[in-house]
């Protein structure tokens, strides 16, 4: 963990990676930086994530052990997709109230997937906090069935904090590329989240500049934001 004081951090912000909510598991990848996650439902976990815990712009992490050292790979949800295997089937259908009785697993087969873009990595200390965050492209490939966890605000803050107390978002260009048409929106969602974790005036100025630049780039290059 960095020795730099975090003078504007709220005491209510959790800054540990242990006992975090598991929201899903990896089922496939589109590239080294882009993964598809199947979101858990009530049949997968006793405590399934609510919609606001696995929504657009939610920071997440995956724990990895590399040569005996513990790391987290940071990411963010940039897209979601719903899959209903019954959609498009023809013929009579059972009433909604009768479906659980006659077609077990029908509701559970409806699945929610999330696209997760990777942001970087950080080392995990013995007390489950993080240190030495890097916004460079992770070297390791994640695996199918790796568990994806909701990232607490305190950990998200630490991931964006440098040793000298500055705010860093060195992954922005990469995130814009991976997330494609939704790149600007997910970056702005992260900026808005970081505003709450970095209330100091100097940090707000940095976030203002980033937001202005993202909106300008989007309006010029993509035409999806104004």
TrEMBL record:
This is DUF8166 domain-containing protein. It comes from the Archaea. Pfam families: DUF8166. Residues 9-225 form the DUF8166 domain. The lineage of its organism: Archaea, Methanobacteriati, Methanobacteriota, Stenosarchaea group, Halobacteria.
